[in-house]
């Protein structure tokens, strides 16, 4: 092991740049997956004829596919058919699609958990179905969904390392490159990666616990 060499400024900057890419991919994927999941979960909750069943079918397919397969398909298979997507956006799209399906189920469960009495009270006060959904059901459901959503986003951050398969220059990819230049850098680089992932995920887990503690 060579901690001094592994943590020299050029190497450290290289690894931190990779972690920055990891955070960028994870951040964008969190936003997109939340939007996708909220839309799909709401559609499933409304039980609209045909559309709701079709959405449920698509969500179930995506949830039962390996994330690695989705990223591989978007980043490697599609370019061979003429659809070229930069590796950064291929990783974001793959993560957003997969995690969006996971979020959709969290959103649907959160909406279903809202007490029917509150819905009936809102409807009896003159609110339409969609007004009730927007102003009553969704705000209440979001409070209950917050802890599992944060937990899902923690998994998303860890799953972003799978983008190494399409040579995205994120943290794990850069560790592979650095370790290839000197095998004595492997353990120091992996220890640094462990600290970085743990720090971010621990902060997110604290946020999840606080949100859960605030639940009525």
UniProtKB/TrEMBL annotation:
- This chain's protein is named Amino acid ABC transporter membrane protein 2, PAAT family (TC 3.A.1.3.-)
**InterPro entries of this UniProt entry?**
AA_ABC_transptr_permease_3TM, ArtM/GltK/GlnP/TcyL/YhdX-like, MetI-like, MetI-like_sf
Q: Does the keyword Kinase apply?
A: no
Q: Which PANTHER family did the record assign?
A: INNER MEMBRANE AMINO-ACID ABC TRANSPORTER PERMEASE PROTEIN YHDY, MEMBRANE COMPONENT OF AMINO ACID ABC TRANSPORTER
- Main location, first listed in the record: membrane
Give the matching Pfam families. BPD_transp_1
User: Which membrane topology describes this protein?
Assistant: Multi-pass membrane protein
Q: Where is the ABC transmembrane type-1 domain?
A: 19-204
Q: Organism source for this protein? A: Paenibacillus uliginis N3/975
Protein keywords? Amino-acid transport, Cell membrane, Membrane, Transmembrane, Transmembrane helix, Transport
Cellular location(s): Cell membrane
Q: Which family does it belong to?
A: Belongs to the binding-protein-dependent transport system permease family.
Asked whether the keyword Lyase is assigned, the reply is no
Q: Which GO terms describe its molecular function?
A: transmembrane transporter activity
TM spans (from-to): 14-40, 61-81, 87-107, 185-204
């Amino acid at each position: 092991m060579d901690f001094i060499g592994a943590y020299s400024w050029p190497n450290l900057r290289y690894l931190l740049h990779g972690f920055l890419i990891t955070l960028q991919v994870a951040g964008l994927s969190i936003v997109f997956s939340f939007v996708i999941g909220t839309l799909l979960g709401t559609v499933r909750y409304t039980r609209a004829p045909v559309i709701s069943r079709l959405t449920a079918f698509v969500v179930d397919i995506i949830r039962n596919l390996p994330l690695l397969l989705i990223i591989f398909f978007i980043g490697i298979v599609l370019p061979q058919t003429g659809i070229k997507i930069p590796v950064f956006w291929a990783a974001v799209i793959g993560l957003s699609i997969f995690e969006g399906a996971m979020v959709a189920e969290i959103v649907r469960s959160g909406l279903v958990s809202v007490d029917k009495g509150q819905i009936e009270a809102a409807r009896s006060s003159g609110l339409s179905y969609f007004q009730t959904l927007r102003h009553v059901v969704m705000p209440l459901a979001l409070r209950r969904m917050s802890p599992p959503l944060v937990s899902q986003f923690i998994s998303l951050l860890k799953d972003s390392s799978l983008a190494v398969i399409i040579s995205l220059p994120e943290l794990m990819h850069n560790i592979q490159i650095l370790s290839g230049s000197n095998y004595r850098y492997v353990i120091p680089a992996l220890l640094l990666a462990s600290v970085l992932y743990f720090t971010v995920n621990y902060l997110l887990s604290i946020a999840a616990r606080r949100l859960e503690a605030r639940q009525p």
